[in-house]
Structures are given as C-alpha cells and as structure tokens.
Structures
1.
Amino acid sequence: MNFVRLFAVSYCSVLGCVFATRHLDQLRYLKLISPIEKPSRMFGLWKVPRLSSIQFNLVGFGFLAALVLVVCGSYARMASLVAVALYFLYFAQIRTLGYISRKSNLIPQFLFVLAMVPATGRALNVISPMWPILLLKILLIQIYASAAYSKLANSGFKWGGASHMAKTLVVRHMTYDIPLAFRVAKYPWICALLGSIVLIHQITFPIVLFATRLEPAYVIVAFLFHLSSIFLMRVNYLIYQGPAYLIFAVIPFGQHFLTSAVR
Amino acid sequence: VIEAAVLTVLVVLPTWIATIRQTNEWPFGSYPMFSKSFHKKRLTVYRIAYEDKSGRLIWWKPHYYKLSSIFGGEVKRCLKMPAPDRDEALDKVFGSIEHCLIDDPSAVNALSVCVVMRQSRQDGNGNWQLLNATIVRRPITKTVDAPR
C-alpha cells in the first residue's frame, strides 16, 4: 500500500476544499489591507511582490489547480512543488489574517516533502517507504513541541498553573469580548486543569512517534485543545492546520479499508 | 537513508533554529503565543473603539477581528516613542484604522476613533474588575464616496 500517495490525495483534497471556501474572504482581506500593509518576507529575508486583486485570484486558482493535479496524480510531484511556490506568493499577501498567521505554516512544509518523495507520484498499490509519513508526523508534532519550549523558556512550569491561564483568558476577554473566557477565569481549578493539560500534552506529544498506540488519545486532546482555543481565545488553528491531522488517519484507514481493494 | 536525512534537516532544523532564537522566519517560526509571564498586577490592553453621533463609545469589532488588536498594539508601541516621532507614527496608525473602519459596515455611524486603555485587576475575593480609560480620540477625517 502506498500510504504517501494516500495521504497526498486526502490532504490535498481537504486543503483544496478549505482553500476554495475561504478564497473570497481572503480576497476581501487583501483589498482591505493592501494599501496599508506590505506582504510578508519569505524566510524572513526575501520580499514577496504585492499582488493586485486579479493577480491574487489567478495565483489562488493556480494553487487550487496544483492541488487538484496532485489529487489526480498527473505530474503530482511537480504540481506539489508549484503549489509551494504559489503558496508563498498568495499567503504572503494576507499573513496577518487571523486564521492564516502561523496557522498555514505547515502547508508549504508538507507540500515540499510530498514533492521530494517519489512515492507521491506512484500508484496506490505500490509499497511506499514509511519514513515520509514519519517525517510529516514530526513536522506536525514539532509545532506543539516548539510551543512547549517557548512556554517553558519564558515562564517555566508556572505556565501550567491557575494564575497564568486565568490572566491569559482575562486578557483575551479584554481584547475580543469573550464572556465565556472571562467566566472561566473566575474558577482557578478549571484554569489549573486547562493549563496543566495543555502543557503536559505539548511537552509529551513527541512520545507518539515511538508509542503509536497513544496517537488517537493525543490527536483527540489536540482537537479538544484547538476547539477550546476557538471558544476561549478566538484562536483558530483548525482551518488550515486541520487537514494535516490526516497524517494520523492515513495508515489505520488504509490498512482497514483499502489494502484488499488496491491489490 | 540519505534522502530522508537531507529532507529532515531541510524542513525540521529551521523550525528549531527559529524556536530557540524565538524568531519568525515564515514559514518556519516559533510559537511563543501566550507563553510570557504576567509580571504586573494590572493587565493592560489597548483597544480601538469609536464614537457615534450620540457620543456613545462603541467597541470596534471588525469582521477581521485581529485588526483591532493589531492596531491596539501599534498604538501602544507609538506611545512609547519620543514626542516628534510619536505624533508622526500615531498619524500613520490612525490613518490605517480609519481606512479599515470606513470599510466596516458595522461602524457606519462612527464619527471619531478612540484608543481605550483597558486594565483589569483582581480584588481580594478573586473577582476581576475591568477599567476603561480613553487615551486618544481623533475625529474621522476621510469621506466616503460610495454608500457605506
């Protein structure tokens, strides 16, 4: 079974659907922000040119078409590489948009890996190496590990205490009017519970690379974490990072439902 | 093996360099959100509001909600500057706020833009109290040709 191909198809399908449904909102943001803000720098170094609305539409269409080509399997690796280039051109224009800033970082990383791996362009019934799947899992998990590192470096284990979480929730309420966050901040035991779960989850997430049986539990906690972030903090990672979680589903799904079908 | 190792170094290492240096080299970056300790007793944010015809102060809640905190943060940065630079920087930020506010259908009655310093403190019973103080107020100068 070619799990890399299976992941490429499922990831690019879901990402393409998400992107297509968001494009108009992103275009509106571009029109609003383009007179007052420059595009982001690629790798923090290289300027990305400002696009007009028409160019933005064309680049968006190109990005979507590249994802479709990956799904169809025609020049899949080349299409994936083109999608990486178009990602930088498109997303640099609107990087301050709430659900894009940092949340779309995995897209070029995943597409680049898929472009570099020969199995992406091969048929589903070919046996693929497992290291690309492991590498993609590492890319996703390192986001949580990186967040844990920042928390420990800046605040230590105190981050998981009630006080820090309560203050964070109050600040979010003061900034965005989130009454639920303000209410939760009044209960120290809930804040301590939330803070410690988040910290333990982020620190220990890399364990799943060695203990794959723990994957479902960690993925469920990650989803609950992102859901609570949406309702308590107005931080939405699920839109553009959500499709990356398919990496944890691709092997069990392929083994249970597709192995006999593709022989 | 070599292919896997090279690819791993190419995509994994930059994120860790950015994480340790706490920088953001898009698309590789650290994730430091909400990680810093709160040292002051009072929590402070700068928030954008507008006044309507009746003089009521209304929080600006744009569709692209992050704009409000982006501009609030920029105003905070400007207020720390020395006087001549500060005025020029504030003019630029208020120009940007106005540009976005005029585009917002929910702020159709806005006559002036206000920056409100929002503070919170915890009383002895653990309850949070919110205090608001308008620190900058500017009338909206731009006119709109198309119906808002």
2.
Amino acid sequence: MSRRTLRGLVVLVLTLLCCAQLASSARAETGEDLRSPKSRSTRFSAYSLPKGTWAIEAGALGLGNDELYGEIGGAVGLGAGFQLDVNLAHYGVGLFNISSRWNFLDTRHVALSLGLSFLYGHGDWVWILSPLAERLIEDTDLFSLPVNLTASVPVTHWLQFDLTAEYQYAKLIGQLGEGKTLYADALIGAERFVFRPGARFFLSDTTALELAALLPAFTKVPYEGTLSAELLGRGFQRSGEGEAKIAFSETWNLEVGLRSRFTPWMFGSFRLTFGPLADRFFSAPVYPTFSLEFRL
Amino acid sequence: MLNKAWSQFVVMGRSALVALALSSASPVSAQDQAAAAKATASSETPSSAAEEKRAGFDLLASIAYAYTTTEPNGLKLDPYGGYFGLDLGYTWNMGLRVGARASYGLGRSIKQTYDPLIGASVDLTSDAQSVTASATVGYDMKLHILTLRYALGIGFTSLHWDLGDIPYTSFAGYSPMKGSMFGAQIDPGVALLWQRGHFECGLGLHYLVPFTEEVPSALVAELLVGTRL
C-alpha cells in the first residue's frame, strides 16, 4: 500500500469519525434515530417492523425482486419478529406476491432474520409488457420462491453492516411463443444464489447513506422440453434437458442511496443502481429509484 | 489517471475533515449551550426554531453536466452535455418544498457508425439540444450545517435533433432527419445545500427519466448557486 493510499484512508476514516461524532450528538438531543425500532429500515436488513406497525411504501423505477419497476407496498409487523409484505403495484400487472420475514434474533450487536417470498404470475394477465412480449408469454405460468437469511451488525452508532444470502428458485411452465421465430414447449427454470453485502452510514439522526451490492454466486437456467429460436437466419434448437449458466458479469449490481426521516412517520429515499442489471431492465448503466414510506 | 483521481479524493477528504471539525467544534461554545438551554426553557425545541428559518422562496441557478445514459434504438444522441438551469421554489416550515425548474442542454455532436438490425451500416453525425422543464415537489432536511433536499420533478423535455444529410425519411425512430419532439419525464434527485443569510450554494444530483423512447435518459450532476428571498 503506497503512502498516498494510506494517507487517503486515514483521511476517510477521520472524516467518518467526525460524522459519527456529529450523528451521536444529534441523536442525544432527540433520543430517536434511524436505528430505533420504529424508524429503522427493513430493506436489506434483518430487522422487522414492531408489532402493530404498518408501513405503506410508494416508489418507482426499482430493480429488486420486490420493487421491480415500481412499488405500492404494504407491510405489517405481527410481533415476535414476524413481518408480512406485499407489493400491490405488482398485483396490478398480474404478478401476485407475498413476502414474510422472521427476525428471530435481535440483540444490540447482531440481528438475524429468515425471509420467504412467493410470486405467481399468469402470462395472460400481465399487461404491462410490449404486445410482442405479451403474446410470447400468454400461455405461461411463472412461480418464484426466494428464501434468504440476513444478518445485520450495528458496529458503532454511525455504522451498520448487513449481509443477505439468498437462494431463489423460479419456474416458467407452458408454451412460450409461437411460430418459428421463438418456440418453447418446456419447463424453464431459474435458480440463483446471491450474496448481498451492505453498509449504512448514519450521517445524522434522520439521514443514512446506504450502500449495497448484489453478488450472485451462480445463476442457472435449467430447461426440459423443446426450445427453438430463429433470428436473421441464425437458429437454435434444443430438446430434452439442459442448463444454461449466466455469467456473474451479467448479473451483479451496486447501489448507493440516501434514506431520511422527514417526520416521525414519513421517510424518503433516493438511490442509484449501477451494473448490468440496470442495463438489462432499463437499457442504462445507471438508474435511479425513489420511494416514500409512511409508518403508521 | 487513477493516481490523479485518488489525489483529488484526498484533497476533498481533507476539506471535508476541516469543515466537519469546524462544525463540530462550534456547538460546544458557552454561548450555544446557553442558547440551547434558553430554547429548552421556553418550551421551544431547537428543531422547531431551525424549521422556522426554512420558510420562504429560493432561487437557484445551476451549472451542470448531464451524462446521457441511454441510446435510443441504438443511436448515440446527446441532447444534454453542458446543462444550465434555474430552479425557483417555496419551502414551508415543515420542510415541504414546491417549485419549478427549467434547463437548457447544449448537447453535442457525435460521429458514429450506426448498425441497424437489418440493412447496411450508416455513417452519420448526430447533433442535439434540449429544453427541460419540471414542476417539483420536495422535502428539505437539516443535515448538520447543511440542508439535504430531496426532490421529484414531473415535466417534459423538448428535444431537437439533426442527423445530417443521410437519405432517409425515418431513421432509428427519428423523422425527419432534422426535427423536434416533446416527451414527458420524471426526474428524482437530491441536493446538498449550504445556506447563510440570503446566500445558498451546493451540489445536486438528479436523473432525467423520459417516458418517450426517443428522448435519452441522463444523470445530471450540478453546481447550484442562489439566493433565499
């Protein structure tokens, strides 16, 4: 490590320590901050909402499983660390989903939770895609089942680390497409195992800088049946069983964002996501997400 | 290049450290402690006193660079580039801010070879400019000595393009080869402002998300200077 690099790191650490000092003095005035049970973020963290607390969230342009393209969500804390979430915006376009979480360990130094989600979509009910894509999937059914384990570690008053390990299993059943351009009468699956490390810097009692990465260990697309595709004279045909692997370089992403508590019951966030997933969904290497959350 | 970027980061880090050290030193003065005690005694919280100062109009001028992030139908078109604008808004005590902003993008010319899905490739130079206008709703928060402003704009972009003398009536979704169009858009963003008296300045970041495919998206990084009225 060069001397210049070392100096830079020392400056960075001292800067963050100054932030910490300011954050802790601000918190002392109010006794409430973004790490308190009523205010802390449940997104990518192990925490769940307190019993009887409702969270209503509206956002747009998201990239995650539960917030892709948009979110009008509701979540409720059921007590004993249990929480249920639904994204009604996805219901509106024909994708039915429910997520549950159990925050089974919540101590001062570490919190752990288990999450289980379920999504079902019938191709014919999905109306938001282009006419060609809608026609392609109209005879299919999609099931998705992500399971995750999340740990949150508040290291200091101003810094928290999160780590999620998630396995997602999805299956597309039915006839995909028609004619010779694209045809599949097959079971097409998707399996992936991802790690999602993250860090939150509590810049004040009301604002946190949040960093997160999506790092897939593997993404596989197993299939069983008959697949054929043809475009500009180039053809592809497979029958039987097989498996396609999607490279890490196609599936990672990074995000950086800010989350603030506007009032004791209203929160706002703005995030930027970088990486090939943003490119895949929005045709841009970087894309924004914003949301407003009400806790009642 | 990496060394240069790193040394810039070190300089920025040092500046931030000095600013934070100064800001953290000031609250412990005896005068401030007395003022805080007085505020508490008069049953008025320090935060509400700070909120009172928020109310009013502010006008900001912005000098920005907008990085175009999409290529409509595979065509490189940059109607933003150097990006200049004005932002006028009113902020209530609670932090809610309603405003309007308008910007002009100088754009730039891009020489390129366009490869269509079908047919031969075409050499051309694209040139574009833009005018963007949005109504904004946002929220101002105190972040130590600074103000953190969240904002969501809803408006339109007027795009002007010139694809040169290529012999097409329609190309990559643009028709004619020199023309203009309107597209609705949203633009969420944040800004970090320093306010002193009637003066304010800061840095902002927002993202133009057009609903029209032919209008490119852009990430806008801006320097803001203005006044509180």
